[in-house]
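QA checklist item 7 of 12: single-chain prediction sanity check.
[x] sequence parsed
[x] length recorded as 609
[x] structure emitted
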Amino acid sequence: MKARVALAISGVLIVSAAAPVPAPLVEKVAPLPHSTDTPRDGARGWTSAPRLPPFGPRLSGLPVISAPQGWRAASSPPGWGGLIASQPATRQAARWAYATGQIASGRGAEALGALDIMRQDEPDLMLVPAYRLALGVTLAMLNRPAPALAALADASLAANSEACAWRMLALAKSGMAPQALGQFRCALSALNARPVALRAPFLLAIARTAADMGHPALAVQLVAALPVSDPSANLLRGRAAFKLGDLGRAMELISEARKAGSTEQRFDADISLIEIAAAKGKLDGPATNLLREIRFRWRGGDVEVRALRLSYRIARESKDLRATLETGGTLSRYFDGGTDRASLTAELQQTLTAVLSPDNPMRLEQVAGLYWEYRDLAPAAADGDLLVSQLADRLQSEGLYERAAELLDHQLRFRTRDIAQGPLSARVATLFILAAKPERALSAIRDTDGNIYPDDMRWDRNRMVAVALDQIGRTEEAMAVLQDVPDGAAIRAEIAWKRHDWRTLAAAPLPASPGNAPLSDIVQAQLLRHATALAMMGRESDLAALRARWSGRFANLSTGTAFAALTAAVGGIDTATLSAAMAAIPSASPAGDIADLIDMAPNVVKPMG
């Protein structure tokens, strides 16, 4: 029967679900006859379904339902029978009768299915207030407050008591307390027209809203009509009594609710009792353990939100940074922060700032882990960027290069845009090179290639690309990347020195004469490396020329002996002398800081050519 109804709602009239389909008809089965189907290919024998007559004008002429009894009155003829017996001319009316009947019976899912099919066949129904009311009611029944409010946002429904009742419920479930209370007077006649049992969800929602807004006396008044044995009402009465200062009455009511309530209501009662204990200053270990257990066993709804808020308050008061971030982060991420979203966000940002403070005694690895887990809670814009940069500096100073690189890589990809990616990408690449992750260094540069950078930024990025390429053994590409970099020749010479590429090193230009000034360590290193390359290649004449030009400048230097040994006749140099001379070469590099990165590369020696 349910299958027949579902098909009838969508417009397929079935007389017998068990009746066989004659074989000749299989090739010409008509499409599911929604009225908006486009015509099919006539050559294949397919035809479009007839368009259903518009139902909107007729529905617009009917009185809009303004009381709960109106749903049952609008549901004649009976739902299933009317659907199955309907013809194209009466199908939309039958669907409407079915939907209103389901609303009257509290079956929101069935009603929504019929209403959705109606709208598919006739989109203009969204312009009809009666249809929007029915759609909003079904969505509110199914605890979908946001779309329910959108459906009920029609000027002609503003003073409709039934619409106000469901709008009030949706607003209360959305945490929009003032707006929900504002609907109460308009909804009063529709609420009074309901039996007490059907009135209870509305009264409980608005009473809870009143209590949360600091109106406990109003909350007590709103649930006064509910039975004294109702656990939900007693929970609200107990919370209201607590806020009114009657702790004894509050504990009595909450304890009664706990004994008679469902699992959710028992958890709700436990949270209320913990709140009372916290107010008395008697919060102990078992109470906090119980709160943790409730959060573990119950997910979603007001119970989890209240448990989280209480846990968050306890964590802040005890200055437990980790617990503050954990509970506050859950509230922010999964419950949108609630009504105090702005203050919660500001508090969490302050907490994260305190975590990243150098004064925090927590180990640096733990600090980095906490930031990474709760990085979405960090301050926006420059303040947040500064926190990340300072943390990366600390990680780098401790040698935690990869952690620092990953931190800034996330910043590069998700928080930085346009030209600002230039210097940050170079820094990220530097850290990945220090962490011996050259592939990730290349990725940081190449994934941000879409911007147009000034020359100095472009050169910094090219230096990192060259070093990373050299680290993965693509040295010829690295040399090519350095062609237009101002200090590219010095970096190429450094790479050649690292890889014992004597031919490239010998071809590198020599430094200019410093005049009467003494030779700097860098100039000494350049000349001694050049001499080493010439000696290794056996270029006697070039060594003689180098010795003739520079021997006088090396005469009084500590490296003079090394220069003399390296520029001596090739046949007169033994291995020990050569090794000692190379060891005496100053560590200062013409490539500057880049030399440290180049030293991270594996010691791969090219064959001399």
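[x] summary fact logged: Confidence is low (pLDDT under 50) at residues 1-8, 10-48, 603-609.
[ ] second reviewer sign-off
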